[in-house]
């Protein structure tokens, strides 16, 4: 089932999310719905706060990036095959020189800005079967994970912009929070029950 994506301005997006246990109600159904919602919105990642749940859960599917010919064939293969569920994730290390990449977010449609992030991360997490993993990722995959991880920490990519950039997009953000935007996927706007 495709769920509405919470728009910028909703307090759930600024709240630090809490851990869940393996007996979290209807976890498999929730994950299925999140993947369907992300795919329907043509996203590469989706965090539980973006569907209104303040829990430490996010998903990543980097395969849409595999079409981009700026990547080597090896990188394209890695991106094409990268689909993961991250539960109770904790980034334990970030390293390397920060690099800029133009980011967007399903909760903040039509806003894209360069964000600086470190290229290598180590993260501890549980998968959908509640098996624990500790892995190191780099490049674009690390960046997507960092973006989604920020969501469970109550941080949006716009929080990482300069004061000037924030001022320049202030009007756009206000319109998004008021529902004055047209998107091709279901959204839920602050102070509104349901709107497409």
Helix segment tally: 4
Question: N- to C-terminal separation?
Answer: 15 Å
What is the number of domains? 1
Low-confidence runs of at least 5 consecutive residues:
none
Q: Report the count of strand segments.
A: 9
What CATH calls the topology is Peptide Deformylase
CATH superfamily: Peptide deformylase
Q: Percent of residues in helical segments?
A: 25-40%
CATH class: Alpha Beta
| Widest sheet: strand ordering | 2-3-4-7-8
What does this structure look like?
26% of the residues lie in helices and 29% in strands. By secondary structure, it is an alpha+beta fold. A 5-stranded antiparallel beta sheet has the order 2-3-4-7-8, sandwiched between helices. Strands 1-9 form a two-stranded parallel sheet. The chain has one domain (5-185): Peptide Deformylase. A hairpin with a 5-residue loop joins strand 7 and strand 8. The chain has 4 helices and 9 strands, in the order βαββαβββββααβ. The chain has helices at residues 27-40, 73-80, 139-152, 163-177, and strands at residues 5-6, 45-47, 57-61, 83-95, 99-105, 108-117, 120-126, 132-138, 187-188.
Outline:
With 196 residues, the chain is an alpha+beta fold.
Features:
alpha+beta, globular, 196 residues, 5-stranded antiparallel β-sheet, 4 helices, Peptide Deformylase, 26% helix, 29% strand, two-stranded parallel sheet, 9 strands
Q: What is this structure's SSE topology?
A:
Layout: E1 5-6, H1 27-40, E2 45-47, E3 57-61, H2 73-80, E4 83-95, E5 99-105, E6 108-117, E7 120-126, E8 132-138, H3 139-152, H4 163-177, E9 187-188
Parallel strand pairs: 1-9
Antiparallel strand pairs: 2-3, 3-4, 4-7, 5-6, 7-8
């Amino acid at each position: 089932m495709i769920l509405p994506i919470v728009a910028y301005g909703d307090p759930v997006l600024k709240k630090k999310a809490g851990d869940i246990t393996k007996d979290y109600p209807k976890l498999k159904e929730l994950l299925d719905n999140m993947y369907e919602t992300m795919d329907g919105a043509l996203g590469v990642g989706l965090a539980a706060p973006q569907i209104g749940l303040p829990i430490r859960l996010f998903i990543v599917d980097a395969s849409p990036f595999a079409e981009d010919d700026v990547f080597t064939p090896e990188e394209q293969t890695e991106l094409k095959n990268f689909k993961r569920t991250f539960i109770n994730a904790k980034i334990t290390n970030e390293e390397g020189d920060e690099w800029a990449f133009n980011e967007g977010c399903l909760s903040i449609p039509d806003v894209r800005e360069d964000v600086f992030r470190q290229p290598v991360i180590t993260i501890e997490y549980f998968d959908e079967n509640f098996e624990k993993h500790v892995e190191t990722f780099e490049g674009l995959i690390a960046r997507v994970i960092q973006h989604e991880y920020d969501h469970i920490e109550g941080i949006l990519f716009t929080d990482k912009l300069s004061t000037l950039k924030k001022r320049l997009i202030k009007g756009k953000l206000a319109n998004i929070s008021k529902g004055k935007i047209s998107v091709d996927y279901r959204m839920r706007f602050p102070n509104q029950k349901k709107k497409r």
